[in-house]
Write a structure and sequence with these properties.
Layout lengths: L2 E5 L2 E3 L5 E8 L7 E7 L6 E7 L4 E3 L7 E6 L4 E6 L8 E8 L13 E2 L3 E5 L1
Parallel strand pairs: 2-11
Antiparallel strand pairs: 1-3, 3-8, 4-5, 4-9, 5-6, 7-8, 9-10, 9-11
């Protein structure tokens, strides 16, 4: 059974930092790409960052220079280091994975989704 379990969310003041984690399991054939999406209240889900098996990364423009995505393959864990947080970063953050490609330009751009972890900046 495929599972993505997020953790690390919380409440911080503007300018603060958080690190989100996502533990993945049950992927028989592995995942070529994994990433993070978020959904703020009354807004559509949007892609935040993604990383491929070759280590290449992509970010939405509004988080470039502030967020860093990384993966510890040995631990089957994905991370999102978030620095200089802003109130507009407040959202439920979801881990997402796909055997082939996670498209952060598409709000449905992955095949597998976690349950989310809440990040509040205020």
């Amino acid at each position: 059974q495929v599972q993505l379990v997020e953790s690390g969310g919380g409440s911080v003041q503007p300018g603060g930092r958080l690190t989100l984690s996502c533990l993945k399991s049950g992927f028989t054939y592995g995942t070529n790409c994994i990433g993070w999406f978020r959904q703020a209240p009354d807004k559509q889900r949007e892609g935040v960052a993604a990383i491929r098996s070759d280590g290449s990364t992509r970010y939405r423009d509004s988080v470039k220079g502030r967020f860093t995505i990384s993966e510890d393959i040995a631990k089957n864990t994905l991370y999102l280091q978030m620095n200089s947080l802003k109130p507009e970063d407040t959202a439920m953050y979801y881990c997402a994975a796909d055997r082939f490609y996670v498209d952060i330009q598409d709000r449905n751009g992955a095949s597998y989704w976690g349950q989310g972890t809440q990040v509040t900046v205020s």
